[in-house]
Predict the structure.
Amino acid sequence: MIRTILTLVLALTSFAFAATIHVPGDQPTIQAGVDAALDNDTVFVAPGDYAENIIINSKSISLISDSGAAMTIIRPFDSGERALHLPTNLNHAFLLKGFTFTGSNGHTCVEIYRGDAGVYDNVFENNDVDDGAIFLYYCGGTVMNNVFRNNRG
């Protein structure tokens, strides 16, 4: 009984202290914001054009654009690599909302491996990729209200 109560208190405490990280206000890049994030944190990204290959390892976080897909664009710095990759997300949840992904020329644009993913309100355009603009591998979750245009693969 005491162990159950202690577990519940710890879970609620970690949720209560979830942080909000602003890019570029608190961290200069999306990758730096993601690296600084802990489980249950939210990374808000200001409008802009970001050239990054973002890797998120084993974290339950939300990555959300402040102003929506029309204003917040992610282009892979190395166009042959994924713009966003979650290679090991087992037992974690991830939310991606409100970005335009463009300019990928490799395997895929966004790849999420395992875990639960919510992918909402994004635009995937002008990507020339082998396995589609978004690749979810052994994932649960929802992909909804995304726009796919001018992609090849």
Summary: The chain has a mean pLDDT of 90. The CA atoms of residues 69 and 99 lie 4 Å apart. The longest strand covers residues 61-65. Helices lie at 2-16, 30-36.
